[in-house]
Amino acid sequence: MAQLDTRQKLAILADAAKYDASCASSGTSKRNSKGGKGIGSTEGMGICHAYAPDGRCISLLKILLTNSCIFDCHYCINRKSSNVRRARFTAREVVDLTLAFYKRNYIEGLFLSSGIIGSSNYTMEQIVEVARSLREDHDFRGYIHLKTIPDADPELVRQAGVHADRVSINVELPTVGGLKRLAPEKSAQRIEGAMGAMRGSIDDTADARKRFKSAPRFAPAGQSTQMIVGADAATDGDIVAKAASLYGRFELRRVYYSAFSPIPDASAVLPLQRPPLMREHRLYQSDWLMRFYGYRPDEVAQATDAATGMLPLDIDPKLAWALKFRDRFPVDVNRAPREALLRVPGLGVKAVNAILTSRRWRRLALADVARLTVSIAKVRPFLIAQDWRPVALSDRADLRPIVAPVQRQLELFAA
C-alpha cells in the first residue's frame, strides 16, 4: 500500500466509492469567497457530477479514505475477506487533492467515506480531520459531505456535523433480520441511535440560530442514508415502510436506494443475480410520491402486488395505485383540489400548480392539459376537462394496456 503513488491511490479509491449513491448536494447554506476571503463556493457551476433538485450542476470529488476494512459485510466489495487491491489516503493527502482539484476547476466539493481501519473511532477521527483542516486551516467554503460511522464515539460523529454541509449514516439494509444475516458486525440499534443523535444536534442548532445570530451552523444540508436493494429478501413494501419510518423519526433529507450488484468472490449467502435496475427506479418514484405528492406509506404499499409485495416494473407506482383505486377517478381538472389532482397519473407537481393558476381565469380543455404533460394518453382516463369526459374509457376492464408505456427494444445500430 505504501508503494502506491497518489494517482494510483486515487484510481483505486475513487472506483471503490462508486457504489455509494448518496452524493448529490442540495439544501446547504450559500457560501462564497467574494472579497478575497477563503476558498471555494457552494453556489457556482462546474464539471457535471450530480444534479441537485433545484437544477444546479454539482461536481464532487467522491473518494474513500481507504478501502481496507476490519468488517466482513457479505454484500460489500471492500469487506475484510474480499480479494481486492487495497489503498489508503492520509488526511493530508485528501486535503491536498481537494484543494488542487478545486483550483483547477474540476470540483466544487468533497464526498468522503471510508472503510473501517484500526477502529471506528480512529477512522472517524481521520474523516473529521480532513473536514476540519479544509475548513479551519484553508478556509474552504465549498460543499463537504461526510459518511459517518455509527459505532464511533458520539462526539466524533457530532464533530462531523460541525464541519460538513451534509452527513449520512447508512442503514445498509431495510430489515433488522437482513442486517444481522449479511452484516453481523453492525447493529441496527447503534445505527438508528447515531441518526437520532444527529437529528437532535441539528434541531438544537436550528433552535439556537433562531435566538442567536452568531450560533454556528451544524450540517445545514441535513442528513441522509442509503439502503441496498435486492441483497436480502425484503420486499418493496418493506423498503417503503422503512424509508417512511426514517423520514418521520429522523427528518432525513433523502433516502437513497442502491441496487445490489454481484461482486467478485461473492459470499454464498448472496443472490447470484442482481435485481432489475428498474426496481431501484420504482423505489425512487415511490419515495417522491411520499415526499412531494402527499401519499401515505400505506398508500404506496397498496400499489405493490398483493402476493409478492413488489412494485410493478412495467408501470410507475402512481399509475399502479390509480388502477387499483379506479373509484377515485376521474377528477375534474377545473374543480378538483390540489390533493386530488396530484393523484392523477401523468400530472407532476409543476403541471398541477400550472393548472391551479390557469383555471382561476378560464375553464381548461383537454388540449390545455396536454401542453403540461408528456403523455396525454395516460392522463385522459383519469380526468374530466371542459370538452372531455371519459365515459367509456374509464370503465374499461382492459385499461392497463392502454395507459401503460409501450415497451420498445432499442436498436444497437439505429441511425
UniProtKB/TrEMBL annotation:
Specify the Elp3/MiaA/NifB-like radical SAM core domain's residue ranges.
Answer: 59-286
State the superkingdom: Bacteria
Cofactors, names only:
[4Fe-4S] cluster
Is the Isomerase keyword given for this protein? no
Q: Which UniProt keywords apply?
A: Iron, Iron-sulfur, Metal-binding, S-adenosyl-L-methionine
Q: Which PANTHER family match?
A: ENDONUCLEASE/EXONUCLEASE/PHOSPHATASE FAMILY DOMAIN-CONTAINING PROTEIN 1, TYPE II SECRETION SYSTEM PROTEIN K
Protein name from the UniProt record: DNA modification/repair radical SAM protein
